[in-house]
């Protein structure tokens, strides 16, 4: 379990993380989302003890991570796949990590196999593609068979097969009872990978919830219905407390379930041509949640 309590991190006058309190639990893949500059990488570095909080406490399984020797046995992390010694071979890199964490050498070839790099084990890392470096970084995170795993943007540079593999790997690690905390900008990937989400903006917690709760909160969540008699149906639905607005040739309804809409229409003999429950995509929900916290919005099309 990862616990942050009232954590603030300032760099000079800039506040990267502001009074952040959150718990990341075992048995789940928890997605860590936020716009550029929201404080995700800083938070991961605080968890790993690479930065000290200006105030507040950060613990992993009840203790600050910094206090643990042989850290890779407790927490495996991939922060920056490019941050490796290019002159070393993949195997030498992992052997050095294993030796300094008293991890049996046999684990090195095991994790190289797990990430599909066995045939590249003797090659120098400097010649690796970004995707291969990501795989190597994931191998390093798995090396100590740790109960807690942190990944910063792990999908970067991976081909579709790699993305699918990482997705399955994270789910497997969580199913084994580990804590898996993953930051990513790829909402669609996270929707397929994570079952819990933590969203931050400008260093502050915006939401901490399950995938279902997250998707249900978007403005597009609700019921869509098509009928040849929208006037009659609109007055029926609003009389029952629903909010109705036209959307193309359909009506978007909130405040009533699809079952309620269908039963009302049936009872009053209003024909329906289509009736469906909609959830917002993760991306839509994310955009709505973070709309006020975007530091670097892109200009619109010109
Ligand atoms: N070492 C540092 N010195 C000064 N400011 C920093 C430092 N590291 C981060 N910051 C600032 O803290 C804020 C949060 O940065 P951070 O990298 O944690 O965000 P992020 O959510 O990981 O962003 P991105 O999605 O773009 O990677 C930013 O405003 C950044 O400029």
UniProtKB/TrEMBL annotation:
InterPro entries: AAA+_ATPase (IPR003593), ABC_transporter-like_ATP-bd (IPR003439), ABC_transporter-like_CS (IPR017871), P-loop_NTPase (IPR027417)
Keyword ATP-binding among UniProt keywords: yes
Sequence ranges assigned to domain ABC transporter in this UniProt record: 2-227
SMART domains assigned: AAA (SM00382)
GO MF terms held by the record: ATP binding
Pfam families the UniProt entry points to: ABC_tran
Domain of life: Bacteria
SUPFAM superfamilies found in the cross-reference section: P-loop containing nucleoside triphosphate hydrolases
Keywords: ATP-binding, Nucleotide-binding, Transport
Family named by the database record: Belongs to the ABC transporter superfamily.
Official protein name in the record: ABC transporter ATP-binding protein
Protein's organism: Micromonospora vulcania
């Amino acid at each position: 379990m990862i616990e942050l309590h009232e954590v603030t991190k300032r760099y000079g006058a800039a506040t990267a993380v502001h009074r952040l309190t959150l718990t990341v639990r075992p048995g789940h893949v928890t997605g860590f989302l936020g716009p550029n500059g929201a404080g995700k990488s800083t938070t991961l570095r605080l968890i790993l003890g690479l930065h000290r909080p200006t105030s507040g406490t950060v613990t992993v399984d009840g203790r600050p991570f910094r206090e643990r020797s042989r850290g890779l046995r407790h927490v495996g992390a991939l922060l920056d796949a490019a941050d490796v010694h290019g002159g070393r071979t993949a195997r030498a890199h992992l052997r050095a990590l294993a030796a300094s964490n008293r991890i049996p050498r046999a684990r090195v070839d095991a994790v190289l196999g797990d990430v599909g790099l066995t045939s590249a084990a003797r090659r120098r890392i400097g010649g690796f593609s970004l995707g291969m470096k990501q795989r190597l970084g994931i191998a390093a995170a798995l090396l100590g068979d740790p109960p807690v795993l942190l990944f910063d943007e792990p999908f970067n540079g991976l081909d579709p097969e790699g993305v699918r593999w990482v997705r399955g790997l994270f789910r497997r690690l969580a199913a084994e009872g580990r804590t898996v905390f993953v930051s990513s900008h790829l909402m669609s990937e996270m929707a397929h990978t994570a079952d819990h989400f933590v969203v931050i903006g400008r260093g502050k917690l915006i939401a901490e919830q399950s995938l279902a709760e997250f998707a249900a909160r978007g403005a597009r969540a609700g019921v869509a219905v098509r009928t040849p008699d929208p006037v009659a149906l609109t007055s029926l639905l609003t009389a029952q407390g629903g909010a109705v607005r036209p959307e193309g040739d359909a009506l978007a309804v909130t405040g009533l379930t699809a079952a309620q809409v269908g039963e009302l229409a049936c009872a009053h003999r209003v024909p329906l041509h289509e009736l469906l429950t909609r959830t917002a995509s993760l991306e839509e929900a994310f955009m709505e949640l973070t709309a006020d916290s975007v530091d670097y919005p892109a200009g619109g099309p010109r």
